[in-house]
Amino acid sequence: MKDRILVSELSDVLNGKNIVLYGFIDSIRKLGKLTFFYLRDGSGKIQVFFNSADLNEKEYKIVEHLRNENIINMEGILRKRPKNQVKNIFKGEYEIEGKALDILIRGEVPPFEIDKINEINESIRGRFRYIELRNEKVRKKIIFRSNITRYIREYFYSRNYNEIETPSLIKSTPEGARDFIVPSRNYKGKFYALPQSPQLMKQILMGSGFEKYFQIARCYRDEDLRADRQPEFSQLDVERAFIEESEIYSEIENMFAYTGEKMGFDINIPFPQLSYDEVMEKYASDKPDMRNPLVIEDHTVQFSVLPIDFVQKAIKEGKKIRGIKIPICLSGSQVKKIEAILKAEGAKGLISLSRLNNSYNFTLSKFADKSFYDGFDLQNNETILFQIGKKNESVLNFLRNYLGKEYDLLKGVFKFLWVVDFPLFEYDEDEKKYKPAHHPFTMPVNPEQLFNKTGNYKDIPSRAYDLILNGSELGSGSIRINKIDTQKRVFEILGLSEDIQRERFGFFLDAMKYGFPPHGGIALGIARMAAILYGCDSIHDFIVFPKTTSGSCPLTNSPSVIEKDFLDELSISIKKDNSNEN
Ligand code: ASP
């Protein structure tokens, strides 16, 4: 056989020539003496037809018995299709007049048709994901992700970064989630942990003198799963020595601009920056969707004149009355519908004020007069929807997102945002202890504040930042602590005794003792980045074999029971009561 040609390589130069193709058979149709099918290879698909009048008996038998998804090689003549046919069922510019064909593998009939996957339920698709991946549209997303990582790598290589792999079997150093652990055979009763991220490794590498590090790193976090989370994932992990926040921002912005240019979409840089306080105030979220023009405004002052008990009581309790204005005069039934949706999200109710010409419609109109309405700067055909509550009410965030989508207000394709000026710690009122707002290796703006004697570390600003794209957090980073006293003080505030610090982070503190340059970095989730840039809601589609929301792998059926002999070798016995029959 002659050299293989890929579908993507077909061009006018080959028109009328005999060529060899390999691939899968797709959508066989018979029309009199003609057998049509698509030949699908890794690069695309092309229409093929065989005319039984041209075939000898043996060839005829082969073509007659072809089935969808047979794997073949074939020879045929490339034909340019007449312009008026290009728009038929098959939209291709060329087709192949088949001359010879061999079936390499017949294979079993797949459990569903490759182009009818939408009719198949999730669990079957998960189990037979390898069949689903034969669908071009499904495979396209995986290839899209592959291209993104290619251009990310190209960018960082062009900027003289070193791609450095760090180990996956490490010591348990939790970063906020639970670790996955791996028992050791050689060291009975001891365990490795899978990294939640290469955070400590990349910092140690800075201490070794690698100034520009990146890696597409596998990370593992044993968290309660949510729809858009996976227990294992890849992130673009970056770290640099002798760097300030602004240089990290521009490095990442340039990387996105480069990737966007290569992939054919516009990404405007630099990305805007807003402080954590500002986003919480204006959007009630630390990851606001900036395609949404709606903002939250505080109207507590205007409401303070209303002689209504629950309003006055709320204001006395320090609650705020905040509202979102939309450029639509909502009808009573529209407001009712929104109220019902908000109640399911935990809202007590909904107050609305709308204006049509000079008449106002207000939920509490009995208590309001003209001067009250005048206080709102409400134009004709506008409505404000109010919520009473604490400052960062999650209902307001929900309402803003809901209104933006429901009333088609989103503008722009890719809206990035840096959220900056985060606090260093969050205080857990239930557990009565401080927790890192990001992770414990984040540098405070002013490290001296850690040593104040007040015992209050709630408002210490940090040098952490998050990158948001269209309302999703792509990832976060920070300038890191590089002085041992500061690091130990942070551990202390987090409640880690000297012994626990040694036990968990001794190796890291030892490395820091010998000197870490000032450094900082960031990590961005690859599947999420791919999904949003592709315009898709689910990260699942960008993972070849994703786990279910309960963390099981439908392909391999893991997690699964381990044979007793193997467990014995590891000196592990399973407690009966805790064994999970599933
Ligand atoms: N290690 C952090 C994470 O994985 C990111 C960073 O600070 O670089 O979330």
Give an overview in words.
This protein has 582 residues and is of the alpha+beta class. The protein has 3 domains: 7-105, OB fold (Dihydrolipoamide Acetyltransferase, E2P) (Beta Barrel), CATH 2.40.50.140; 139-274 and 416-543, BirA Bifunctional Protein, domain 2, CATH 3.30.930; 292-406, Gyrase A, domain 2 (2-Layer Sandwich), CATH 3.30.1360. 28% of the residues lie in helices and 25% in strands. The chain has helices spanning 57-64, 122-127, 129-132, 136-158, 199-207, 245-263, 276-283, 300-303, 309-316, 332-344, 370-374, 394-406, 484-493, 498-513, 526-534, 564-569; strands at 18-31, 34-41, 44-51, 71-80, 94-105, 162-163, 181-183, 191-193, 212-220, 232-241, 273-275, 296-298, 320-326, 351-356, 359-362, 382-389, 416-420, 425-428, 433-436, 464-469, 472-479, 519-525. The strands form 5 sheets. Strands 6-9-10-22-21-20-17-11 form an 8-stranded mixed sheet, sandwiched between helices. Helix 4 (136-158) packs across helix 15. The longest helix has 23 residues, at 136-158. The relative contact order is 0.10. The model has no long low-confidence stretch (mean pLDDT 94). Bound molecules: aspartic acid (ASP). The site of aspartic acid (ASP) has 8 residues, from strand 21 and strand 22.
